Amino acid sequence: MHIENEFFRIVDILKTDDNNAVFKIELITECKVYEGHFPGNPICPGVFNIETIKECAQILSGRSLRISGVKQCRFTSLLTPANREIISVKINTAGMENGLVVQATISDSSNSYVEFKGNMIYD
Amino acid sequence: MEIERLIPQRYPIKVVDELLEVNGNEAHCQLGLRADNCFIEPDGRMAEPGLIEHIAQCASAVAGYRAVAAGATQPPLGFIGEVKNFHCYRRPAVGEMLHTTIENGPEVAGVTLITGKVMSGDELLAETKMKIFINK
User: Fold this and answer.
1) Residue B35: its pLDDT value, please?
2) Domain containing B53: what range?
3) How far is CA B21 from the centre of its chain?
4) Per-domain residue ranges of chain A
5) In chain B, which ranges are continuous DSSP H helix?
């Protein structure tokens, strides 16, 4: 699965340092997943938001990653492709044995959508 | 009962085939993993978010089963509120038969706490706790 340029498109990357960045993204309305989630009622699948975080963490770290564990991931508001705002995916990483501890949030100017804490191992 | 009557998810995100049994708070589902979903990687294995979605859809099928038994004609929409303590031990490959057990906790204000375990044969592939919102 690879959803950059299918589900989301990166418009800018604000990198603070090697462990911290904010990815500015927009959602792609035509993404095929909405045919099934849900027919006639497009809603971003929560797990696609998790994959978005993984793909942004891969770009920041320059490594291919696998999610080995999710300590906690809260979905605080529903995100839909009708949202045409620029969305911020904020990524913080810290090193661990053979991978990264990743903390991330997805939000826009009015809402918070996802708060993620998990472990990703180098693939 | 056809799974399409129990869950609203459809191709390309549908990742459960059958609700086999509901026994009190425990339910069993299965998925014969095919390449017809959006989670399969170039190596022929399912990406980790697919395992989380599979567990969520199994829980959604249980909610759908209860809703249909109560007279609903459409499967209810369910949303993941929280994923907690998810572990992925191995990603399954296309062709494997996944057998998933869902344990339902009590429902409070439309939110159900569930535990899901995905097995392939005797091997535990993934497990998680999850809060699911069901829209009624």
Assistant:
1) 96
2) 3-135
3) 13
4) 8-122
5) 48-69
CATH code (residue B46) = 3.10.129.10
What distance in Å separates the CA atoms of residue B62 and residue A122, rounded to the nearest whole number? 35
What amino acid occupies position B32? Answer: G
**A44 Cα to chain B: minimum distance (Å):** 10
ipTM above 0.90, yes or no: yes
Closest partner residue to B88 (CB to CB) among A43, A48, A67 is A67
As for how many domains chain B has, the answer is: 1
Question: Which of B7, B33, B48, B52 to substitute to test the interface with A, most A CBs within 10 Å?
Answer: B48
The pLDDT tens digits of the residues spanning B75-106 come to 999 899 999 999 999 999 999 999 999 999 98
Does the pLDDT value for residue A20 go beyond 70? Answer: yes
Q: Which of A38, A66, A75 sits opposite B9 (nearest CB)?
A: A38
Fold of the domain built from segment(s) A8-122: Thiol Ester Dehydrase; Chain A (3.10.129)
CB A7 within 8 A of CB A50: no
